Amino acid sequence: MRREESGEGTDTFTLRKRDEDMGESKNRKQEKRAVLDRRDTLKMLIGAPLAAGMGWTSSEVMLAAEKVARSQESEEPFQAQFFNDHEYATVRVLVDLVIPSDDRSGSATEAAVPEFMDFILTDKPEMQTSMRGGLAWLDAQCLRLHDSSFLQCSDEQRRGVLDRIAYPDSATPEWSHGVRFFNSFRDLTASGFWTSEMGIEDLGYQGNVFVSEWKGCPQQALDKLGVSYDD
What we know:
It is a single chain. The chain is mainly α. The protein is built from eleven helices and no strands. Residues 1-10 and 17-54 have low confidence and may be disordered.
């Protein structure tokens, strides 16, 4: 997973996993995907530095992802336990700016990332102040610049504020608090998305595929390496 590379001034605060060289259609990937237990898949995916870099363990991320899956099976509408109504509405807008929908998959809200965040933060009280403070800081900056909360700002205004805090190397000192908050928020968004069913689908993750017959390395690969089985 990487941040999309693009020109100056573009929305590089948006996260999307892209590997255009794979070139394989989604239907073909679905045909080849091994049947994996969801728990095993999540364990493998969140063993990466992504979760650790956020201050959450892989087991905590996996537990939150499983809670999201169970909540989606329930007929009861989701009720946030940590976020208040305004915070939760802000989070829903913000995560979709980080991971919008595209031709490969839906957006972060469609993958239930806000619910994932609420489960994580409910179980991690030591992280609640920084999240709540960060959302309040974001509103304060929008009020200062545009006389409107983040929710009330236009899409262009929201993106303009995020551009000021999305790039740590170029951010000015007065925006340092926002940089720390947004880096954490963006990473948590990614953790929630790519441990969801939709995110795993987006990755095209196949897991361990059983090979019934080993036919050796393809000749094309051997030719490229300049070797042969006769060497």
